[in-house]
Structure formats: structure tokens, C-alpha cells
Design a protein that fits this description.
The complex is a heterodimer of chains A (298) and B (431). With 298 residues, chain A is mainly alpha-helical. Chain A contains twelve helices and four strands. With 431 residues, chain B is an alpha/beta fold. About 3% of the residues of chain B have low confidence. Classes of the chains: A mainly alpha (298), B alpha/beta (431).
């Protein structure tokens, strides 16, 4: 019973982490058809920004909640600036090119941004643990849960609900959905696709930095964290279906629960589970769980 | 400028050109070293940068002739040392390419470096192929010299078996009635070998204690919620980990939030490298290793104090074990170079390699004897200690320091580490 409960809670926490880091990636792919490797950089910049913010607020003696909001705010501001620079300064120049070319461009930008991190923050690692410690813990039976993990699950649930509402019940969401389904038809009906692209990329960038910011208190903010995240986020997005927000949510839940079960029951296969699940899903549904079959354009 | 006005300049230039060869004849040719370490990527902060910094400050001091005896000759045998720093980041293939560049293009006299065991395994055969003198400073795999005899490759720092045998000794000393222990190690060669060696040593030293939870999360996984839950359900009183860098720090933050260290004592075989950064975030009572008597675990010898001073004066923090290992490796090479040197001439690579074999000296990382791997692999004693954070001074402290002799925690010459553990650590000489 304890093990089952632990699998459920651990699975939910890991799924929350995966969903938060994957939602921006899938949104950008859905609208712009760009597999954005710089999403890993957004995550890393968010984490470094959060570590900087935590350092400032820890010195100032402000309440933890204010510090947490400051951390998230600063990280998302960094995401906004990065998004504008990359989209306006780089990506708009390669719109319409082959998808492989665009992936390579984002990969090149990712490598450059890794060095920018070294220039700004240096090679040392940073801790931003204060919000997690301030959140405290709760005992449930023999298990001690971190309240910060519970907050992470709530943030992921909030993001899922917000994106569902925004995509279905707002004007921008409907325009976005139209562009996702057919960019050319949407443009023919007068939708400003360029504006949609820019706005989507900025939102995706801010979601990426938000992921880094909320994870920063749990991890050591160090060089290379973006690489790990982009691989995981890609696996989740591939399971759910490239471009599908609900797919990312379900993909994150499947991977989270399967991984937690593996760690508790068969730890030897933990490494295999994430990619095993991905392979299994793609064998049955090559475009992922939540992508409808597309008619081929001629 | 008129023609007449140019004459003095031309004369000055001629005079400078004439003087240059004379100066060149007087100065001994520089010794060129390639220093390879992680300068970027996740292993840069805990290992690569301290290693690089250790090399930088040591070479400066040696070039100024400020090293303590027997390292007080300027540079290497009177020749200034020129270092070229190369980033170890990238694939093993890339590392080998960079190694070839150092040897064939830059014509370095020796290469000192490498943190990753994978990179050491890739570079070792190429070093022998190119007949390039190479000193590994941090990588821990015993396989380097156990799989094949090497002619031009040396490693002053002991291999990783010592770390885990030392950890098992300390656990036995602290918990003589231990019945169960668990482990969390990264799922690659370093983590798996570390756990195998620890279990092997525990089977010999504490046969009644059994391994309970055995976890191998992915390298740089970052999120350990499920692993911590699994460990919380265990009755083990000791947790072994060879985690390093971001993994060690992330695990420490996450486990403390869930109180794991209140239920079991964590043995961190590389914890020494994290002390300066974690400070009060490292749980009191954690058992700390530093891959030998390095850094915070160094003996209070004059050379260790000297190195700690020059390092802290420059970088503002005490040297951690990668810095000490780098210094130890360069000093070993310096001694071998000077031993091989006849007059002021540069010794040949073969002569340096011959004099390096079986060398014995005391450096910042303790007393090293090159007894394994046919004289190419060093052994030292090791030390473990218990961590305390002193709130009054705001400084970390290591208490209950226990030192284990080289002959106690290393296999004897000619015996593979794995065989030694399986055979019950025969020949170990412990006090």
C-alpha cells in the first residue's frame, strides 16, 4: 500500500516536472512546426535567472512567497527578452525553410546560448534551494513529502487548465488553433500569422524559463542542465503528439507513473522506461497519442 | 618621415634582431604542457575548473621558483613551463582528436588531464601509439592499467577502488552492528564500479550487513523524488553514493526536504568537492570522502599547507580534491622530468617515462608510491571524516577523521582490484 501510494505521488511529481518543461516545446512545434532545441536554453536561463533572484531575495530578508514570485517573474522576463531576440533576430529569417535547416539553426543558437551562460554566470554551479526549504514537508504514514513538490503539481495542473481555457475560450486561442490546423487557410482568412508566430514563440520561451525557474530550487543550477531537459521534453512531446498540449499532459503522466513504478519495483529498468514507453506508443501511433491523421497536401 | 630620419629606426631594429638569438641561446627552452579538464559542462564547476585552477597557480609558482623542496627548481629542471588549457567537454572521439592536436600540432612535451574515465580509456591507447607522455589526474577507473600495460601513460592519483574500500572501513568503524545498507549511484561506469567495489569491500569487512535498495538513476537526472521515496521505505541505516556535481547537490537538496538524512547516514565518496559550495546545506553527520587525502582531508604537511595557501590566496576558497590531484600529478611529472634530466638539456620522453616508473614522493595529496600497473599507477592512503557545519564560524568542519594506509585500501601490486575484492582483500595491511 505504501509502495503504491509512493508510486502515485512520485509519478505525479515527475509528471508535473515533465509537463512544465514540455508544454512550451509542444506549443511552439504545434504552431510554428519548429522543433525548438533552444527550449533547453530557455530552461537553463530560467533556472539561472531564478538562482540569481533567490540570491537577491535571500539577502533582502523578504517573505518566501514574495521571493518565489520574484524568482518566477525574473525568469519569465528573461524568457520574454530571449524570445524576442531569437524570434525577431534569427528565426524569422529562416521561416519557410526546410524543417531540418530550422532545427539546425535552433541547435546552433542553443550552443551559442550555452556559452552566453558561461559569460554571464561563469562555470560555477548555483543553489536556489531556499523556496523548497521554506515550503517545508508533510508526513503521510512512513513517507515524508516535500510541500514544494505538491506546489509543483499544482503549478502543472494550473498551467494545463490555463492552456485549455486559453486555447478554447479566448480569441487568441481560437486563432492559434486555426494556425495549428492549417496555416495557409488561416492566413487566407486574414489571420496575422506572423504575429501569431511571434506571440507563440514568446509564450513558449516564457514557459521554458518558467520550467527552469520552478525546478531551480530542486536542482543544482549548473552548466549543461538544458541538454538533459530537451531530451526528456522531446520524449514526452513525441508520446503525446507533437504540438498537442493535452498530449504533453497525458505523455507526462504516462512517463511519470511508469518511471516511478520502475524505480520502486524494478530499478534496473528505470533508464529504459521513458524511451521504452515512447517506442511502444510510436509503434502503435506513429504521430503520438493526440495527433489526428493528416491529409497529405498535393 | 625623411630617409635620414628612418636610419636610427633601422639601426635599432637591426640591433634588436642581433640581440634576439643571443637571448634565445641563454634561455632554456620552455616545457610545453597540455592541461585538459572540463572547462564547460556539468563537470566543470566541481572538477574541471578546480583542476585547471590548481594547474594554473602551481605552474605560476613553479615558474617563479617558489615551490618548496624538492620542487624548488624553476619550472621543470630550470625551464619555464608553458601550459595550454584544453576543454575536455564533448565526445570521447572529440577528446582523442584534441589529444592528437596537442601532441602532433602543438608539440607539447606532456599532457596532464582528464576527469572522465571514458576519456581516459579512449586516450590511453592513443598516448602509447603517439609515444606521448600522459598523466591522468582525476579519472578513477582501475581498468586503465589492469586491462593492458601502458608505456607512456601514468596516473599518480589512486584508482576508485580505494575510495570505496576506504568508505567500507569507515562504515565498519562507525557502525559495527550495521545489518543493512543501500546505495544510489549514477547509471554509468563510475557509479556502477563504485557500488560494486563498495559491496565487495562490505562483503569482506561486514559480511552480516546486506545491501537493501540498489538504485542507479540516469546520469544528471536532476529529479530524485521516486528514488528518495524508495529509500524512505528502507530500513537501511547507511546510504552509499558516489554522486558528484549537480547530481550530488540536487539529491542533497531534495533528500533534506524529505528528511532522508534523519533516517540514514549518507556516505558520499566524493563529498569533499561539494563542501565549499553546500556548507550548511550538507547534512551534519554525512560521511565525507575526497578520493584520497586531498583538499579538506589532506594531512597537515608543509607541502599541503603551501598548496592550500597559494590556491586560497588566488581563488578565495580552499583547494578541493581535483585541485590537489592536479597539483600532485604535475609535481610527479616535474620530479620524473628532473630525475631524467642530464645537465640543462631537455630529457627525452622515453627517459622521463623511465624515471616516472615507480617514483615515490610526497605532494599536496599525500605520499604517493607508483606501485601498481608496473609502476605507472600510484597508491596513497585515504581518509574519511564526518561532516559538521559550524554555525558560529559559518565554516564547514570535518571531525572524526580516520586515515587508512595505502596498503590497507589498495590491492597489492600485480592484483586486479576486482579479483582482490572477490578474494577477500588478501594482503591488505591495516592497523
Amino acid at each position: 500500500m505504501l509502495t503504491a501510494f509512493a508510486i502515485l505521488t512520485d509519478g505525479l511529481v515527475y509528471a508535473a516536472y515533465l509537463f512544465i518543461v514540455a508544454i512550451g516545446l509542444t506549443l511552439i512545434f504545434g504552431v510554428m512546426k519548429i522543433l525548438n532545441v533552444t527550449h533547453g536554453s530557455f530552461y537553463a536561463f530560467g533556472a539561472y535567472g531564478a538562482a540569481t533572484a533567490v540570491g537577491i531575495y535571500a539577502e533582502s530578508g523578504l517573505p518566501a512567497a514574495v521571493g518565489f514570485l520574484f524568482m518566477v517573474g525574473l525568469a519569465m522576463a528573461i524568457g520574454l527578452v530571449l524570445g524576442i531576440v531569437l524570434e525577431r533576430g534569427l528565426l524569422r529569417l529562416v521561416y519557410g525553410r526546410d524543417e531540418v535547416v530550422v532545427v539546425l539553426v535552433t541547435y546552433a543558437a542553443f550552443l551559442i546560448l550555452e556559452d552566453v551562460i558561461v559569460l554571464i554566470w561563469g562555470p560555477r554551479s548555483y543553489g536556489a534551494w531556499q523556496p523548497m526549504v521554506a515550503a517545508g514537508s508533510i508526513d503521510i504514514g512512513d513517507l515524508t513529502l516535500s510541500n514544494y513538490d505538491i506546489i509543483l503539481v499544482l503549478i502543472a495542473a494550473g498551467l494545463a487548465a490555463l492552456s485549455y481555457w486559453a486555447l478554447r475560450f479566448t480569441r487568441y486561442g481560437r486563432l492559434l488553433t486555426a494556425v495549428i490546423f492549417d496555416r495557409e487557410t488561416a492566413a487566407a482568412f486574414g489571420v496575422n500569422v506572423t504575429m501569431i508566430y511571434t506571440a507563440t514563440f514568446l509564450i513558449g520561451a516564457m514557459l521554458g524559463t518558467l520550467g527552469g525557474a520552478v525546478m531551480a530550487p530542486k536542482i543544482s543550477v549548473t552548466l549543461g542542465i538544458g541538454v538533459e531537459v530537451i531530451v526528456l521534453a522531446f520524449a514526452v512531446v513525441a508520446i503525446g503528439g507533437m504540438g498537442s498540449v493535452e498530449g504533453a499532459l497525458i505523455g507526462a503522466l504516462i512517463v511519470g507513473i511508469c518511471r516511478a513504478a520502475a524505480v520502486h519495483l524494478v530499478p534496473q529498468i528505470e533508464l529504459f522506461v521513458i524511451y521504452g514507453v515512447m517506442a511502444l506508443v510510436l509503434v502503435v501511433r506513429p504521430h503520438g497519442l493526440f495527433v489526428r491523421a493528416q491529409p497529405r497536401k498535393i | 618621415m625623411s630617409k635620414h630620419a628612418r636610419i636610427p629606426f633601422a639601426l635599432a631594429a637591426l640591433a634588436a634582431m642581433a640581440a634576439a638569438p643571443a637571448q634565445a641561446q641563454q634561455a632554456a627552452p620552455a616545457v610545453k604542457l597540455g592541461i585538459v579538464s572540463f572547462l564547460t559542462g556539468p563537470a566543470a564547476a566541481p572538477f574541471g575548473i578546480p583542476g585547471r585552477n590548481g594547474a594554473e597557480i602551481l605552474i605560476e609558482e613553479l615558474n617563479a621558483g617558489k615551490g618548496p623542496a624538492p620542487f624548488n627548481k624553476v619550472g621543470f629542471g630550470g625551464s619555464k613551463v608553458e601550459a595550454k588549457y584544453v576543454d575536455e567537454a564533448g565526445s570521447a572521439a572529440n577528446t582523442v582528436t584534441e589529444f592528437r592536436n596537442l601532441v602532433q600540432r602543438d608539440k607539447v612535451d606532456a599532457v596532464v588531464g582528464y576527469v572522465s574515465s571514458g576519456n581516459c580509456l579512449a586516450v590511453a591507447p592513443v598516448a602509447d601509439e603517439l609515444k606521448a607522455l600522459t598523466v591522468f589526474y582525476d579519472c578513477g577507473t582501475p581498468r586503465i592499467f589492469e586491462e593492458k600495460a601502458r608505456a607512456y601513460v601514468f596516473r599518480v592519483s589512486p584508482h576508485a577502488t580505494m575510495d570505496n574500500v576506504g568508505a567500507a572501513h569507515y562504515v565498519r568503524d562507525k557502525f559495527p552492528k550495521l545489518t543493512s545498507y543501500s546505495g544510489i549511484n549514477q547509471n554509468y561506469a563510475w557509479g556502477q564500479d563504485s557500488w560494486r567495489d563498495f559491496v565487495g569491500a562490505m562483503n569482506v569487512l561486514m559480511p552480516k550487513a546486506k545491501a537493501d535498495k540498489v538504485l542507479f538513476p540516469k546520469l544528471f537526472a536532476g529529479e530524485y523524488g521516486a528514488e528518495i521515496s524508495t529509500l524512505l521505505t528502507s530500513k537501511s541505516k547507511v546510504l552509499h553514493t558516489s554522486f558528484f556535481d549537480g547530481d550530488l547537490e540536487a539529491f542533497t537538496y531534495q533528500e533534506q526536504a524529505r528528511g532522508l538524512d534523519k533516517r540514514m547516514t549518507i556516505v558520499m565518496t566524493t563529498g569533499e568537492a561539494a563542501i565549499t559550495r553546500l556548507k550548511d546545506k550538507l547534512p551534519n553527520g554525512t560521511i565525507i570522502g575526497g578520493r584520497g587525502e586531498n583538499g579538506w582531508l589532506a594531512e597537515n604537511t608543509p607541502i599541503a599547507k603551501w598548496f592550500a595557501k597559494i590556491y586560497s590566496d588566488r581563488y578565495g576558497i580552499p583547494p578541493s580534491y581535483p585541485a590537489s590531484q592536479m597539483a600532485q600529478s604535475i609535481l610527479g611529472l616535474k620530479l620524473a622530468y628532473e630525475k631524467a634530466q642530464k645537465g640543462n638539456d631537455k630529457p627525452s620522453t622515453e627517459d622521463i617515462a623511465a624515471s616516472f616508473k615507480g617514483i615515490e614522493f610526497t605532494g599536496p595529496a599525500g605520499h604517493v608510491k607508483m606501485t601498481l600497473g608496473d609502476g605507472h599507477q600510484g597508491v596513497t592512503g585515504t581518509a574519511y571524516a564526518t561532516y559538521r557545519y559550524n554555525k558560529k564560524t559559518g565554516q564547514p568542519e570535518l571531525v572524526d577523521v580516520k586515515r587508512y594506509a595505502a596498503e590497507c585500501v589498495n590491492p597489492p601490486p600485480g592484483v586486479n582490484a576486482d579479483d582482490w575484492l572477490k578474494d577477500g582483500m588478501k594482503g591488505a595491511k591495516c592497523n
